[in-house]
Each structure stands twice: as structure tokens, then as C-alpha cells.
Amino acid sequence: MIHIEGVGKSFGATTVLDGINLRIAPGEVVSILGASGSGKSTLIRCINGLEKLDRGTISVDGFDVADPKQLQQARRCSGTVFQLFNLYPHMTALQNIALAPVEMLKVPRREAEEQARALLASVGLADRADAFPAQLSGGQRQRVGICRALAMKPRYLLLDEVTSALDPEMTGEVLDILAKLAAGGTTMLFVTHEIEFARTISNRVVFLDQGRLLADLPTAKFFAADGGLAHPRITQFLTRMSKS
Fold first, then answer.
1. Cα(158)–Cα(191) distance, rounded to whole angstroms?
2. Predicted model pTM
């Protein structure tokens, strides 16, 4: 379980996260919604230890991300996919995916590469194993990024606006992959502006506003008039998103 308790984070005088309490259990698919600047991406970065907490605690399967001695174990429990791919440009798709299992898990290279090929095949990129990132479309690069995270066999997949840099067609490619992962039981916590996608595959919806958690509800309840839509700020946000 990912356990977030009383988490606060500030950058200078600006409070980005303010008293966040959240639990993500294995098997759940949880979307994080909110306007730009509401703290969504910062929360993901705090979970994987890329940002240090100012207040509160985060543990991943019991490992405290604030403890340097436990951070590596916490990171092995979760895989992160970023907005801008972050692939190594000098490595092929296959090499990008196989690197971490070889270096961190000490998986034999041949085994890691076989696993990488299987992952690429699962996202429709079997023929692109030897391509470098510059030779791939944005949607293809993001699918490689998802494979790279899955190669570590994480219990939790953290996704930070993974379609924000993609055009509509490429966005559809990536969302199809995430829908298949969700259907297969992959635990996911994802930041997104794809409202209908969140409605379709999420078990729960979390809504952040100015660093505060305004709602944490089952998906149907969040989109119901007596749930999240009963909150004027959430109604305003969803109305604006539907017009964009």
C-alpha cells in the first residue's frame, strides 16, 4: 500500500501540498485531477522521492521514502512514467528498457533483453526494438517509457500527465495501453487531464486544488451530483475542461 499522511511541501513562500492524506491499495486505479499548479505532479515526485517532504510521511509497502536507507526499496515497489519520456537518447528502445533490470536488479542481460522485447511486443512495438528515441514518434516514445517502468515489475505504476505532450492520435495510442494495464489488474496512480478516460478506468478520483485534497471518492460518486459535483470548485473545473 502507498500510505500518504499529512504531507506538506512548499517552494519558498508557496505552499504546493497542504496536509495530503491518501492511501492507494494494490489493484486500485486512482486518477488525480485538478487545475495546473494544484500540486498533482509534485505529489507524484514526492511519492518516488524526487522531492523531499517538508511535513508528513509517505511509505510504499512500508518503506519510508524520506529515509535514504529505505528509498531505494520504496522505488523498487513503484515505477514512474513522466510527461516528457526521459529516455536515454543514445540508447535504443530495447536498451532503455533493459538497463534498469540489469543495473539495479542484477538480471542477466540476455534475460532482461528478452523481457524488454516481450514488453515492446505487448505495446505494439516489436519491430522498433533497435530504434533510437529520435527515430520514434511521441506516442511510441511514451509507450517505451511505460515498458521501461514495467520492466522493473513494480507493484505500483505512477503516471504523470503521460499524454500532455502528445497529439490526439498519439494520446489515443497511449491511453489504449493504460486501459489494458488497468484491465489486467495493474495498480495505477495517474495524473491526467483526460477526464473521460479517468471516468472510464478509475476506481477512485482524487481532486486537488491549490495543494489541498478536496475530494477522494469512488469514480461514480465523484461524477454524481451528490458527490464531487456537489462541490462548486470541482463543478467549475469539469465545466471548463469539457469546453477545452
1. 8
2. 0.88
